Amino acid sequence: MRLLLTRAEGDSLHLAERLRALGHTAVEAPLFEIEYSDNAPPALDGVQALLVTSANGVLGFARSRPERDIPVFAVGARTAAAAREAGFKTVRSADGDATKLAEKTALWADPERGALLHATAPSGENTLAALLAPAGFTVKTAIVYRSVPALRLPDAAKTALRANALDGVLLLSPGTASTFAALVQRAGLESACGRLAFFCISAATVAALGRLPRGRIAVAARPALEAVLELLP
């Protein structure tokens, strides 16, 4: 399949390599840029481990603090690999999604040994904190990066849509879906989406597309990249 990738540039490059290995054609059109925080470094007093749900969270924390001996609990293999590349000595991967990370963290850590620090981007909710609270854990949040939406549809996406050169689009968050829909409409290319398959990470991601035409929708069984890739033929 010819698939449009909408992730930030670094993440998109890695995903494109995986798709090509699976026999697909990847068209990279990042809809976000990553900006790392210049805020004061997150405090580590009383923190027993670092929770990371993206490679950007790893890099944002690594840029802000020199410590590499704090244990890192990562959501999946890609995030764990980023932590090891950044020099962290103890890294564990939950090989799943946020729910799986919470389940594994409850086995790896002890609430009596201190809080957990989630290095992440701004969000309206703290899923890990809610999942780990019943087990007695305190989860602190450190905002170490943010995703800045593009102001216009990338040229690669415009060209591919106008030429009907795509079979589908991968959308890995509601924010990405809403940005994609807004930029496509601004470019006047809504009709070009009517024949495409949209591979979405969640039902909320589908809802964020609004009234954008689509050929068909496929929703991942769980909110994880691996589950989205399982939707592909």
How would you characterize this protein structure?
By secondary structure, the chain is of the alpha/beta class. Helices cover 34% and strands 23% of the residues. It has 2 domains: 2-31 and 150-229, Rossmann fold (3-Layer(aba) Sandwich), CATH 3.40.50; 35-147, Rossmann fold (3-Layer(aba) Sandwich). The chain has 9 helices and 12 strands. The chain has a 5-stranded parallel beta sheet with strand order 2-1-10-11-12, sandwiched between helices. A 5-stranded parallel beta sheet has the order 6-5-4-7-8. Helix 2 (55-64) packs parallel to helix 3. 39% of the residues are buried.
Features:
single chain; 233 residues; alpha/beta; Rossmann fold; five-stranded parallel β-sheet; 12 strands; elongated
Please give the order of strands in the largest beta sheet.
2-1-10-11-12
CATH class group of the largest domain: Alpha Beta
Which stretches of 5+ consecutive residues score pLDDT under 50? none
- Helix content percent band: 25-40%
What gap, in angstroms, lies between the N and C termini?
Answer: 8 Å
Outline: elongated
How would a crystallographer describe the biggest sheet? 5 strands, parallel
Secondary structure: number of strands: 12
Can you name the CATH architecture of the largest domain?
Answer: 3-Layer(aba) Sandwich
How much is the radius of gyration in Å?
19 Å
User: What percentage of the residues does DSSP assign to strands (E)?
Assistant: 15-25%
What's the number of domains?
A: 2
Round the mean pLDDT to the nearest integer and report it. 94
Order of helices and strands: EHEEEHEHEHEHEEHEHEHEH
CATH topology of the largest domain: Rossmann fold
Our count of helices gives 9
Could you say which structural class the secondary elements and strand pairing correspond to? alpha/beta
